[in-house]
Design brief:
Elements: H1 4-15, H2 76-96, E1 102-103, H3 105-114, E2 124-129, H4 130-140, E3 143-148, E4 155-162, E5 180-184, E6 190-196, E7 207-209, E8 215-217, H5 218-221, E9 225-229, E10 232-236, H6 240-248
Helix pairs in contact: 3-6
Length: 260
Amino acid sequence: MMHSWILTNVLAGLLSPAVAGAPIRIPPPVLPGMDHLKLDRNLEGKYFHEPVGHEKGADDRLGHYDTRYFHGMVTDEERVETLHHMVRAYLDFFRENQLETWIAHGTLLGWWWNSKLLPWDWDVDTQVRDTTLVRLATEFNQTISHYVSADKKYKREYMLDINPWAYFRDNGPGHNIIDARWIDTTNGLYIDITALSVFDPRSKPDQWECKNHHKYKTEDLFPLRETSFEGVVAMVPYKYQEMLLEEYSLKSLARINYEK
């Protein structure tokens, strides 16, 4: 499908003056369906904020909380319980609303080992197509989902928050590489959601890329494989093992000891 931002880039290339030695300025790719935001790229600032201190090395664990719902660091026991239920609620929400998503990065590595999160993880990584991100932005942005565990003992509310700067699909100033978050409103822990786009449809139509420059071939991702993660239905990329080897090396799939 030809996105509107693709057409924008093509026209910009055709209409730009061919000045010898001068680079052709092409507008950044943007997402159709979010044009109503009318964002000024010159005013872009960081949208998601974490508690003060993590960026200075005080405690990198602080970087895994959304500052709006942060009331202090949770215990390891609460962290594990929070992430377990948050993943289940997220995957159920996406499946119930026919929204495509799959687990990625370190979360995918945890699935590879035992279909669960890695015991030392502080957040969760998922991915979506850019077309799914548009649906999230237009139909579900800042909605609150109510969750009750099967045994009725665990209750939580999660906010799905879409970064408005996701409209621009390039990295830009680098403040907004995360496109959306699924946030536990009790303690601020979250799931990072990043969207993949085809940045260069003319010369690389089968290459998908996120704003943090992770690149994938269509055949690496699709068709997605159905599996189980934290006890609920989940999807993983088609060539999950090759992707894990490229991102984390063979050691990550062989070593059984974790070094902090």
